[in-house]
Specification:
Blueprint (H helix, E strand, L loop, with lengths): L2 E3 L11 E5 L6 E4 L10 E4 L2 E4 L5 E2 L6 E2 L2 E2 L8 E3 L1 E4 L19 H5 L3 H4 L4 H4 L4 H4 L4 H4 L4 H4 L4 H6 L10 H6 L2 H4 L4 H4 L12 H6 L2 H4 L12 H5 L3 H4 L4 H4 L4 H4 L4 H4 L4 H6 L2 H5 L3 H6 L10 H5 L3 H6 L2 H10 L2 H5 L3 H8 L1
Parallel strand pairs: 1-9
Antiparallel strand pairs: 1-6, 2-3, 2-10, 4-5, 7-8
Amino acid sequence: MTTHFAKKLFVLATASTTVFVLNTSSAQATCSNPAYNSSAITCLTNGGTWTSDSSSTLPSIPGGTIPGGSIPNVPGVPFTIPTFTIPAGVPNFTIPPGFNFGSLNPTQLQGMLPAQFAGITPDQLKKFTPSALAELDPNQLKNLAPKAIAALSGTQLKGMNPEAFAGFTADQLKKIDPAALAKVTGTQIGNLDPAALAGLATTHIKKLAPNALAGITPEQIDSFSKKALAALSGTQLAKLTPAALAELDPAKIASLATSAIAGLKDAQVAEMDPAQFAALTLNQLKALKPGIADAVTPEQLAVLSSKEAKTLTAAFRKAALKALTDVEEAALPAAVLKALKG
């Protein structure tokens, strides 16, 4: 079997310790490299010794298991092992009995292995300081129980390293207090795994700051459910980047509230695929503001039926026609052109 390691494996300092987290379990193998060089690192397990090469590929894994979990043994089928690195000079930290979690400092948090976070209770997580959470790693975060995530405050979420948000799962996001989610930034939102966004309910969407929506990426936008999209306000929708909105499945366009459609900006409309424009409902078309009509493309207008074109407000139709060249106007389907001029 071939195993691929993350590239950051090869920039570890000699004193660093890397923990490999297998698949979605909490199984871990602690690997060290006392004889560090630029092309190899050695992993000692009870199944044998793994030595990486310069291509980040390991040879066939010997039989056996890594403590805490089995190694899939399917020849020729690669799988990715995400890494968690304890920075050089940071000692491993184990929570002692009776520990005051409010006193956990950034260095101690950095020294905690991901598996330790699985046992953190809501009351304990509630005491973590924003300064400590600023050092949270995605692999540490994803090990927190969803019921513990529910205890996070807005101040704690806002203080987290944006990169840590990549560790959130859908089940965890479902449990976040909507009021707390109101504090997150666009940079943090942009780091969420697209699959995790399915965990956001309408109550979460309504609480997101409009500027946070600006962080949504083209890869994320289609992960929103129809119900979540329906909860977007005009102010929120207007903050989506044109590139992100352009990737929304046309089948979901009708889910957007008519009042939200009224918030679309010129640049967003200009980037819409004709199939998206054709998916707008009659009420949505009627809600389009005349101020963005000059951004509508001939290709978008051409996919409308005469009924849909006629539904556009008179002011919108007039502005759209004014923005067309004679050649573009002549290329429109006759029925559409007649409706726009009607």
